[in-house]
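[User] At your convenience, examine this fold.
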Amino acid sequence: MRPEAEQVTRQQVEDFLYEEAALLDAWRLDVWLALLTDDAVYNVPSNDRPDGDSRDTLFIIADDIRRIRARVARLKKPDAHAEYPPSRTRRMISNVRIVPCEGALLKVEANFIVHRFRRNEGIRAFVGHYRYELRAESGGLRIARREAIIDSMELGSLASVGFIL
């Protein structure tokens, strides 16, 4: 690991994840984008193959940085019917842990619950865990890889996952 990554504490990682959650809950998507590296990946694997590879397994979301930027641009437009007006969300992050790894990336896992409030719909709760690969840079932590693994056995009752989990 690079010296910067070795010096990052769990508290710093927790603070970073809490800040990310606050940005997403406030729909400050452009500020959230600035937390990502230029080669970032955002995945939501299917719940029947949570450890699958997006190259040969169907994923709910498998975005590289170009597609992440396009997703954010789409979510901000009034004609994005799935998220206009934007859903209200409240993220709860817990059990944050730094996972031993080799190399320059800091691997982090955490549990989540995202409560989604949408007009004309009931409250939805997305429960699962995150897997991150973070880079420690002089300006702080940045997200190189972000996976949201949903625990639900079936997705039909959860409705759209167009917003950023």
About this structure: The helical segments are 3-6, 10-25, 29-33, 65-75. The mean pLDDT is 86.
